[in-house]
Structure formats: C-alpha cells, structure tokens
Specification:
heterodimer; A: alpha+beta; 8 strands; B: alpha/beta; 6-stranded parallel β-sheet
C-alpha cells in the first residue's frame, strides 16, 4: 500500500504523494485523541524538535536536520472530523510545504484502528531543499512508515523499543591473539 | 562489566564494557548468575546472520537477580530471581495478546529493516543481530531487560540455576517443536539433530504422548544422550531414509522435527552454494524430512532458517499433504507450564549440560561447542 508519485490533483510535477497504513490495537477515539494533541507527536516522530500548538487549529513545527540545522513550518488544520480524520496543510513561507491527511478506521475483527497517513509535499529549492531531501533520503515512505510504527508502539505499550545507550564492545578493538 | 562481544566470523572476545542502564520505564536490570551458549549462537559465530556489528554483546539464554527496575515495572521487584525469555515482547499488541509472543509488533526497533526482508517483522531478540533489534545480550555480568513486565518469570529460591536456565529458550523451543507435531497416542516422531533443542524435543515428545522417538545425528555422544532420553537413534551418515522407513513399518514417521536448521551437514551442493552466496541456508535436513514424512504428516521446524534455500521438494510435500509448522518460540507461552514440570520433577533439564566454564573463557567455549570437541553439547557460563 505504498505510493510515491506525482499528485494527480496537482499540476506541479514536483509534488510527491505518499501513503502509509498501520493498525493500532486501541479504539479509534483514543487513537484520534492522542494524535489530535499535536504535542504528543513529538514522542514518536524521529528528529522532530518541537511542536507548539499556537491556536485551536494552528501549530508551529521545528524539525532538526542532520548536522543540527533546523527547518520550521506552520500548519493549519483544514478539516477535523472526530474520530475519523484530520487534514492539515502548511502556511505560506514554511520551509517544508506539504499537506496531509490522517484517517482512523475501525479495523475488522476488533483489531483496533487502521491509521492511514497520506502526505503530499513539495521540495523547496536552495539549501533548505537540499538538506530536506537529504533528511528524507530517497525513501520518505520509509520515514513515515518508521514514525507510524513508533506511534503504534507508544499507543499500544506507552513506550518505544530503544537500544541507544546500551553497552557494547568498542568497535576499534584490536584482536588479541 | 565483562561481556562476550562479537567481532566477526569466529572472532569472539571478552571485553570490559559499561554496565547497562535503565533506558526506558519498562526496563529492568538483571545481575546474571548463569548464561548459556545456544546452538543458534553458532550461526552468528559462523557469520551466517547479517547485520551483526563489531562489539555486539551476544547471548539470549540467561537468568539472574533483578537489581534495578524502571518506573513502569509493576510485576518485578529488586531481589527477584528470574529466568529471561530470549524473545522480547510488549504484552499489548495483537500478537502478544494471542500468545504469539515471538511475533510481537512493537519490540524490534529495526522492524522496518526486518520487514524489507521478511514482509513483516517479529519480536526483538537479545543478542541476535540488528535485524532482530540489536539488543545487547546476556552473556555478560549484567543485562538490561526491556518490557520486563512481559518477559522474565520468577523462580523459587530452592531450584538450582541449571534446572531452570533453559526455560529461557531451548526447553520451550524443543517443547513447542513437539507440540507442533500434534502428537497422538501410538505415533512415531523423527527428530533430526541431537543438539540441545533436539534433546528437549525428544523428551517433550514423550511428555506429550509419543510412543516412539527416532533421533538422527552423526555425533555418537549426542546419540548417547538421546538414547538416555528414551529415543532410538540413527547416524546421519547411514541411509536415514531407508532406516526410517524400515523402523516405521514402511509408513514413514508421523511427524518430523528439523532441529538442525540452516547449517545442516551432508550436502556438498549446499555448502558450495552457501559459500559463494548463491544460497544462504543449507536445507539438507529439510529435504530429507519432507521425503520421508508419512502422508498427511507434520513437519515441525525449530531449527533456524535465515534466508533462502533451494531444491525444496515442494512436489513431495504437496503430494503427501504435509503440514508445516515453524518459527521462533513463543517462550512466554511455555515458561509457566514448563517450570511446573520441573517443580514436579517430570524432567530435570540439567541433563543437557556437558560443560561449565567461567564467562571469561567464552571464546574457548564457543570454539569447543562449535567443533563439538570433548563431547560438548551444552555450555553454561558463570559470570
């Protein structure tokens, strides 16, 4: 269920659409509620530095790029149907222009909620665009897939699986004879 | 602390590393009292499992005492004596809720990487490559146990380590392999591989009602241990197919257990293909078992396969209507009932231990186990 192609609805050839889906073993009211409080997203989105809710519908996002530089954008909610879906798009002047939809559907067989994220984005030009492209790599799908997986873990277990900070033998170690 | 670290093919070193810390609220730290080398560790030792990194701490069969717990840990407390399952499971996802603990959705931090290979990722595993999460293992003085409320089982003080240590992996693995055979009274089970998992599969098959167990291995010491467990044995260097046919009245075994996995000996074809990476696994046992299994029988596979095999006689499997059961063990499902069997003295799992060595001699222990020198079947390391 992965697409990565120019948006049909847009005349701009540089738009990319990506869709990722996962199932979360929680009811959709809980899943919707958690997502709707954007501050919560910082728990699971990789490299997200901060999200500040500036009004009921607007939020300010700061993302950290490799090397420590940051990019920022303002997002506005354009549709909010509890507990079914949230649509948003970025405001003029954002470093990373995109629009997105997250939808929450009951999964069959009482398996919880199917969460689907669709994002349409456009790479900015110049240095920011280049850095962004580097961050997203050639596989923005994978980035979103990774974040969704982390979202699922936070929702289902209240924590993420981590190994950063665990011990290991130093890599440069010389072989003893 | 001291830890057993992997540095490459047949390059195991004991290193001084940092003590593990609590990294997540569900973590616990265990001070290890006993730890073992698993047959599946030899796949790492031989360099057959991808995504190992120099310095990774090995080991997934360990037990000890809880010395620290994270803020979310409710079920365990400092001072508890525990055996830790090799599978790391969250306890909350669909799979954990359905007792399929080894298929946990949430505990592999590298699930996306694993899914690229396998379609979907299973649980994280201690000390078993970054494909399975990159978790530091338990061949060390201490280990961090994530999702600790959903793994370790508490053990009464009066049972010696060696009787309960193997509840971490090989006992449930052998038991699940036998359970997967759906054994009915009067049935004959054939088991390839008399290593530790095969030994537990033999004894579990009898516990589950098998009438006859035929065990196959080329090592006389291992066959002797299998016979002590009640099995009749065949050397894998003899004509296994003909002998099994003869010993089952021409019907073939009702179920076959492949407790060998990807590194089976016996076929030059596979050894060459594996060495030039045309094939990752050597499925010699699998082919033999498919051919000899009776019509409508079960093939149960606890032996580890990691990648691609070829020349699998699918036509024979289809023609005879075989059932295939396999996978990593859902250890948490079996810990409680198997501990009860030990407490009731229905089995004493320490029979399998042939060598006891200090942790500091792990490098020597791996070599010994790998070469099956000195009748080595199972090594327990003491930190």
């Amino acid at each position: 269920m992965t697409k990565n192609k120019p948006a049909k609805s847009s005349p701009n050839k540089k738009d990319t659409v990506t869709k990722q889906v996962c199932t979360v073993a929680r009811d959709r009211e809980a899943v919707y509620k958690f997502w709707r409080r954007f501050e919560n997203l910082a728990f699971f989105m990789t490299d997200l530095k901060s999200i500040t809710q500036t009004s009921e519908t607007n939020s300010h996002w700061i993302y950290e790029l490799p090397g420590g530089k940051t990019i920022e954008w303002d997002a506005v909610i354009t549709e909010d149907v509890s507990p079914e879906r949230i649509r948003w798009e970025t405001l003029e002047g954002s470093d990373f222009q995109h629009k997105g939809t997250v939808s929450f559907l009951p999964a069959m067989g009482n398996q919880g909620t199917e969460v689907a994220v669709t994002m349409t984005y456009r790479m900015a030009g110049g240095k920011v665009g280049a850095a962004l492209a580097k961050m997203l790599g050639n596989a923005p799908d994978q980035r979103i897939q990774e974040d969704l997986r982390r979202f699922k873990a936070v929702m289902e277990c209240g924590e993420l699986p981590v190994i950063q900070g665990q011990p290991m033998g130093e890599a440069s170690s010389r072989r003893k004879s | 602390m001291k830890a057993v670290c992997w540095y490459g093919t047949r390059d195991i070193r004991i290193k001084n590393v940092d003590d593990p810390k609590i990294l997540s609220p569900g973590d616990a730290i265990v001070k290890i009292t006993s730890t073992a080398i698993c047959g599946s560790d030899l796949h790492l030792y031989d360099g057959h499992i991808p995504t190992m990194k120099a310095g990774d701490i090995l080991g997934h069969e360990f037990m000890g005492e809880i010395v620290e717990t994270g803020s979310n840990v409710k079920r365990l407390k400092v001072g508890d004596r525990v055996v830790v399952p090799f599978t790391i499971s969250c306890g909350s996802c669909y799979y954990c809720q359905h007792q399929l603990w080894a298929l946990c959705d949430n505990t592999n931090p590298n699930a996306v990487m694993n899914a690229k290979l396998n379609g979907f990722s299973g649980a994280g595993i201690f000390g078993y490559s970054h494909l399975y999460g990159g978790y530091a293992g338990g061949q060390a003085e201490y280990a961090r146990v994530p999702f600790a409320d959903h793994g370790p089982i508490k053990i009464p003080k009066d049972i010696p380590d060696e009787q309960v240590l193997f509840i971490s992996d090989i006992f449930p693995t052998g038991y699940m392999a036998a359970e997967n055979c759906n054994i009915q009274p009067g049935q004959t089970i054939a088991i390839w591989g008399c290593g530790p998992v095969g030994q537990f599969a033999i004894r579990s098959a009898f516990l589950l009602g098998a009438e006859k167990v035929i065990a196959i291995d080329r090592e006389p010491d291992r066959r002797k241990m299998a016979e002590a467990g009640g099995a009749v044995t065949i050397s894998s260097e003899d004509d296994v197919h003909e002998l099994l046919k003869e010993m089952t009245g021409g019907r073939g075994p009702d179920a076959c257990i492949d407790a060998v996995g990807m590194d089976a000996h016996g076929s030059a074809y596979d050894r060459i293909k594996q060495s030039v990476k045309l094939e990752t696994d050597r499925p010699y046992v699998l082919r033999q078992a498919i051919r000899i299994c009776r019509k409508g029988g079960v093939l149960s596979i606890p032996g580890v396969y990691a990648g691609l095999v070829d020349k699998i006689p699918m036509g024979a499997a289809f023609a005879k209507g075989l059932t295939f059961r396999m996978g990593q063990t859902h250890v948490q499902r079996y810990m409680e009932p198997l501990l009860k069997l030990v407490e009731a003295q229905k089995i004493n799992p320490s029979f399998v231990v042939t060598h006891r060595m200090p942790l500091a001699e792990a490098s020597k222990a791996y070599r010994l186990f790998h070469r099956k020198d000195d009748g080595c079947i199972k090594v327990v390391l003491k930190p």
